[in-house]
Structures are given as structure tokens and as C-alpha cells.
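Q: What would this complex look like in 3D?
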Amino acid sequence: QSVLTQPPSVSAAPGQKVTISCSGSSSNIGNNYVSWYQQLPGTAPKLLIYDNDKRPSGIPDRFSGSKSGTSATLGITGLQTGDDADYYCVIWDNSLSVWVFGGGTKLTVL
Amino acid sequence: QVQLQESGPGLLKPSETLSLTCTVSGDSVSSATYFWSWIRQPPGKGLEWIAYIHYIGTTNYNSSLKSRVTISLDTSKNQFSLKLTSVIAADTAVYYCARSAFYSYFLDVWGKGTTVTVSS
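A: Here is my prediction, written as C-alpha cells for the whole assembly.
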């Protein structure tokens, strides 16, 4: 059981928007930057969002991140079948010097 | 372009020691800029961070695995390694290596992963 709580699954139709939440506490999300990773079936995780809301080069602006208090949210607009994947929120816990992973959310694009 | 490539035994028996290596290309494990991590993913489950190491010798471990894990660097081969002793079936997973910068809070480069199965 991770200290970062994500819904096990979400689903939406192509073209629609979906949000994935990551809930924590003041000691983890509240005090640290959140990053998000996309894991397509059978592949390694890929960085989607860093520092709560920044996108690496090459990540489309359909993907967005935000953080408020002890929760973070990944948003995906204009859903495509290729977005079918698992999504993980992650923090670097600065006080413990450890990486903390959320349990992951499986996105199904119907 | 930085690339990480994991290598390992594939199959082990319970109680054996798992040894994995991550070979880094396009960057140097001796760089003061980066930390190097191991992360694993049991079949059908989520990601679990195992350990990290920095060139100057700084290491840290997941508390749940600390008694069985050692991470190390081989600068001559530009590799870093993981040893996990007394493996059990629950150690069956895909093992990934990854990079992060000391001034950042994200894992920016990942290897493709190597599958390890523990079975008698």
C-alpha cells in the first residue's frame, strides 16, 4: 500500500478529457515536487510531467499536471487510443532521501 | 543520447543472490550531476524504488529491502549494479535502472528493464 493514493483505474472515450488524482499528505506531496510517468504495455515508464506541472521536450500539451496542497492531478485532453497505459505519480521525498511511487492508475480509452 | 541497459540472470532459485548490472552509454556514472537508481515491478503490480547511488559514494535503500540489497558503481565499465541476497518468489519482477539529477526531483532516463524470475 503506497502512501501516494491513486485510483486503480479510469476510463473515457476518445477525444474526451480525463484526470488522474494522486493523494498524499503534508509530509510527502505537500512538501515535494510531483512527477508523472506513463507506462505503455510491456514498456518502461516514461517521464510525462515534472516539478508538478512542467512537460519535458516532446511531450504534447494534451498532458498537464497540477498540485494543490496534498494532492496532485494529471490531466489528459483529446484522448487517443495510444494513451491506453498505466500512469504513476512519484515524489522525491527530500527529508528521507527516497523515491516514493503511487500505486498506479490504468487508463482505458474506450 | 543517454541510454541505460539492464542485464541479469533471468532465472534464480530461492535463497540465491540476484546480481544485476546497468550499463550506461552517452553519459558517465562518474558524473557529479547524477544519481543512479534501481526500481522494480512485480508482475501485474506497481513500481517500487529499491536503491540509488551517487558517484561520491552516497547511497540509500528502500527500508523494506535494505537488509538484503547492495548498490555499487564500476566506473571503469561505466556501470552500476544491484545485489539482492536470499531471493524469494516475491522478488520476481521486471527490474529497471534509471537516472536522476541531484538538483532535480524526477527520473528522466530509464532502461528497458530486465525480467527476473525466482522459482525452484
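A: To summarize the key features: The radius of gyration of chain A is 13 Å. Chain A touches chain B through 26 residues (CB under 8 Å).
Q: Very helpful, thank you.
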